[in-house]
Specification:
alpha/beta, Rossmann fold, Nucleoside Triphosphate Pyrophosphohydrolase, 2,3-Dihydroxybiphenyl 1,2-Dioxygenase, domain 1, 3 domains, 25 strands
Amino acid sequence: MTTTDWDAAADTFDEEPDHGLLDPVVRSAWAHRMETWLPTARSAVLDLGCGTGSLSLLVAGQGHRVTAVDRSPRMAELARAKLAGTGSEVLVGDAGRPPVGKQRFDVILARHVVWLLPDPAAVLRHWFSLLRPGGRLLLIEGVWNGVGIPADRLAAMLAEHTERVHHEPLSGDARLWGKEVDDERYALVARAEPPLRHAEVVDVHLILRKGPEVLLARRSGTGYADGLLHAPSGHVEDGEDVRAAVIREAAEEIGVRLDPDELRVALVMQHRGPAGRPRTGWFFEADHDPARPPRNAEPDKCSEVGWFPLDALPDDMVAYCRAGLDGYRAEQRFLIHWHQDTDAIAYAPREPRRAVALPVAAGPTGRLHHVELRVPDLAEAEREWGWLLGLLGHVPYQRWPEGCSWRSGDTCVVAEQDPTVREGKAPGAGPLAFHVRDRAELEALAALAPGHGWRPLVPPGDAGHAGESRPLVVRLANRTGHEVELIAP
C-alpha cells in the first residue's frame, strides 16, 4: 500500500493508521480475537499491509514469528521501531506480491487490504501459493460508507481455493472499534486445504416405458461407445439437480419435454468403466405419452432411436446401461457395476457379471400408514391417547373440530369423534401393537398406565411358540374398550 492509499483508508475507517490499537480496550479486544484466529502452536505469520505494525506486535506478543510488509517506507520504519526486540522482520514491498522469495507461511494476515487491490482474485491466488499445507489466510475487511468489499463477495473468491472458510461478523463488538458501528465489518479465515471429499461425475439415465418396451438410442459420432445402444442419458451440469438434468437430457436427445411429476427414481448405480474413474448414475423411469412421441433430436450423436422389449434386451448395448436395465427389471434399487481394466465397454453376455446388488432396508409394503380410531369423546381420547402416543415417540400432527392425529415418521394415528360409539360397546378399531425398546421400559409403562386411564388386560408375559424367540407383551385397554399391545424384544 502506498502512503496515499493508507491515508485514504484511514480516513474512510475513521481510525488512525495504527488501527486504533493505542486504546488499551481496543488492543485487548483485538488480542483476544487473534488468539482465536491464529494457531496455538508457534507459527510463521506474514502480515501484509502492516502499517505501523500494531497487529504484528500483538501477533509477536503471542509467540509467533512475524514477517511484516508495507509498501510505504515511512510505515515500515515505524513498524520496525515498534517491533524491535521481538525477532520480527519488516520488509518494504507490495502486499499483493510480497518480497518473501520462496518462504512459506502458516498464516497470512491482511487487514483492510483486499478492498484496495486492483485484482483481488489474482492476489488471493498468489497468497494461497505462499501458505504451507493447512495454513490459514486471515482477512479482516468490511464496507464503510458504501466502499469496501462485502463478505459474501470475498467468500466467493476464496471458495475457488478451499471449502473451509469461516465467517465471523465483527460489527457487533464495539470494543474492536472504540465505538458502536452499524456497517459491515468481518473476518474470514480460510484454510489452505484441498477438498478432501471424494468427487465423482454424476450422470442421469431415462427409462422411458411403453408397456413392456423401453426406448434406446444408438450412439454415433461421439467417440465413445459408438454403434452401441444406450438409454437417453447425460451428465449433471454445475448447479443442476439430477431431476432437472434428466429432464434437460430428454428434451435435448429425444425431443420429449417431461414434467417433474412424471419422473420416478428407478435405480442408483455406482459405476467404473474400463480403466476409468468411478461415477454415480441415477436411473429415472417415466411413461411414454403418445401425444409426445420421441424422435432423434441429435442426429450428429445418434443414428437411431427405437423401442425394445425390456425382457429381451439386445446384446449390442453399453455394458453400463445394460447392467442398469437388468437391475431395474429385477427390481433392484442400488447397484455397484465395476469394470476390470481389460473389460470391454460393450455388453458381453459370456463375460462375468460385474454388477452387484446392494441390500436395502425393507420397502413400504406392509408398513402402517395410519389407523383411525372412532371415539365417543374426543377430549378424553386426546388425554388418554396423547399420553401413551407421546411416550411412544409420536407427536401431535393435525387437528380439526371432530378429530386429531399424532404422527411418528410417516405413520399416523387418527382419533375421530363418533357419537354412535358408546361406552361398553366395541370401539371403532382393533388392537394396535407398538414396539417398545426393552423390557425395563415396557415394565415402566405398564406400571404407569393405570394412572392414565389404561388397565392391564393380562399381566406382563411371554408370547410366541415353543422354540421361537419369545418377546414380552403387555396388553392394555382404556374405558372405551380400545386395546393396545406393547411388545418388547
